[in-house]
């Protein structure tokens, strides 16, 4: 009897409890820092702080998704806060723009908050050089026939059909929105005040890869209500939301941390020129991370063989996520075959079985004290069979959990 009691004390509480059938219809999934999750009916659900329900990540299920159709007029707008928006851009004022997302969600952005605006589908097909920021000041790339013209200077004012840009060589000129390919803003001299620390800071990932920051008002059957920097209230329909993260520092998605070492995969050697750099929050093919028919908002896409290394500061205690071969290989003659491995300070903490395309994602859960005091984290993927073919590997929703003292 004492042996049974001792064994039960070593098991996570969730594994000892009976699991009830998930509710039918629209539902909300509450995910905690230790890997436990709870599914509730969305009808009647409401919370102003998911942490009171034991959750740091919230997802909706069973809702019709709202997808955007990205065309040549769809801009990728990146803000200094780390927000990322995909939508149609229109003038709101001399120094402000409106960005219309899918689901008729509209956000206002100020000139000093903008990091870049890019119309990725306007790039000339023959253009293969990178679009780069200026060392100082703003930079415009505008399309002229089948090439790009680069202009350095500064934005003066936004207009309806164009914006005024100052070039030190020739003075002011008008740049038509329809010709714009990329605009990079230098905000090093921004005077905009940072957003005050909120009780429940959140990051909302949308299915179109937009990412919005703000202070949570509530999550309910209508979606997510929040207040953005500057006091702008926003309501996002649940069908547009991939997930909500409580951004209080307790959990950090690994894809938000720059690796210390991330050499591209070169499965066939340098001579053939096939190099596969890793992708953050996308598959190695730069498509949404998809496994088991589900799209994942966060993670890392690689091609085997792969080895990514992060330097840690010793403040984390746990890691969780899942691994799989990306569903994109299901359209190929081969399904790939890989093996995943996690090393902490040189010690192997996880190794998967051989996974192939179509296999269900395999969970990873390294509980405390697996990462307590750790200084190095390595994610490896090795090819298993099939001679590297279709070895598109996904690290899904991999996040690190900080110790309560370090948060």
Provide a quick synopsis of the model.
The chain is mainly β and 407 residues long. Among the domains are: 75-184, no CATH class; 253-402, Sandwich (Jelly Rolls), CATH 2.60.120.1060. It has helices at residues 2-10, 13-16; strands at 27-31, 37-41, 46-47, 57-61, 75-79, 84-93, 96-100, 106-110, 114-118, 138-144, 147-158, 162-167, 171-176, 180-184, 201-206, 211-220, 223-227, 233-237, 241-246, 251-253, 279-280, 289-291, 294-296, 299-303, 306-311, 316-325, 338-344, 347-351, 362-366, 376-383, 392-402.
Jot down its keywords.
Jelly Rolls; mainly beta; 31 strands; 407 residues; nine-stranded antiparallel beta sheet; ten-stranded antiparallel beta sheet; globular; 3% helix
DSSP strand content: 35-45%
Structural class: mainly beta
* Coarse morphology: globular
Q: What is the CATH architecture term of the domain at 253-402?
A: Sandwich
CATH-derived topology of the domain at 253-402: Jelly Rolls
Helix content: under 10%
Count of helical regions: 2
Question: What low-confidence regions span 5 or more consecutive residues with pLDDT below 50?
Answer: 1-19
Quaternary structure: single chain
CATH superfamily of the domain at 253-402: NPCBM/NEW2 domain
Let me know the number of strands. Answer: 31
The main pleated sheet reads as:
10 strands, antiparallel
If you compute it from the alpha carbons, what radius of gyration comes out, rounded to the nearest whole angstrom? 23 Å
């Amino acid at each position: 009897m004492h042996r049974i009691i001792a064994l039960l004390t070593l098991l996570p509480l969730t594994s000892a409890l009976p699991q009830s059938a998930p509710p039918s219809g629209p539902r909300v999934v509450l995910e905690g820092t230790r890997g436990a999750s709870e599914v509730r009916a969305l009808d009647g659900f409401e919370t102003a702080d998911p942490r009171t329900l034991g959750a740091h990540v919230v997802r909706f299920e069973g809702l019709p998704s709202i997808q955007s159709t990205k065309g040549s007029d769809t801009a990728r707008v990146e803000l200094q806060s780390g927000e990322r928006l995909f939508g149609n851009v229109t003038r709101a004022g001399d120094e402000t723009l409106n960005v219309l997302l899918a689901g008729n969600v509209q956000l206002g952005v100020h000139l000093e908050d903008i990091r870049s605006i890019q119309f990725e589908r306007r790039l000339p097909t023959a253009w293969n050089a990178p679009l780069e920021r200026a060392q100082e000041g703003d930079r415009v790339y505008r399309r002229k026939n089948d090439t790009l013209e680069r202009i350095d200077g500064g934005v003066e004012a936004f207009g309806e059909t164009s914006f005024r840009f100052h070039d030190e060589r020739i003075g002011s000129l008008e740049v038509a929105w329809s010709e714009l390919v990329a605009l990079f803003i230098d905000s090093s001299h921004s005077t905009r005040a940072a957003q005050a620390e909120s009780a429940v800071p959140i990051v909302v990932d949308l299915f179109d890869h937009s990412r919005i920051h703000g202070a949570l008002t509530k999550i309910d059957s209508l979606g997510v209500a929040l207040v953005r920097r500057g006091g702008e209230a926003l309501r996002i329909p649940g069908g547009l939301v991939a997930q909500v993260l409580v951004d209080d520092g307790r959990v950090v998605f690994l894809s938000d941390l720059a690796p210390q070492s991330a050499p591209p995969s070169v499965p066939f050697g340098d001579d053939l020129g096939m190099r596969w750099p890793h992708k953050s929050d996308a598959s190695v093919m730069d498509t949404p991370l998809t496994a088991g028919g589900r799209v994942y908002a966060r993670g890392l896409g690689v091609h085997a063989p792969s080895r990514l290394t992060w330097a840690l500061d010793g403040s984390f205690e746990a890691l969780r996520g899942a691994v799989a071969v990306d569903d994109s290989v299901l359209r190929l003659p081969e399904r790939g075959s890989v093996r995943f491995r996690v090393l902490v300070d040189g010690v192997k903490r996880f190794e998967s079985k051989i996974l192939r395309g179509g296999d269900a994602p395999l969970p990873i859960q390294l509980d405390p004290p697996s990462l307590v005091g750790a200084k190095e984290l390595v994610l490896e993927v090795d090819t298993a069979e099939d001679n590297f073919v279709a070895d598109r590997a996904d690290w899904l929703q991999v996040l690190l959990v900080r110790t309560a003292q370090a948060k």
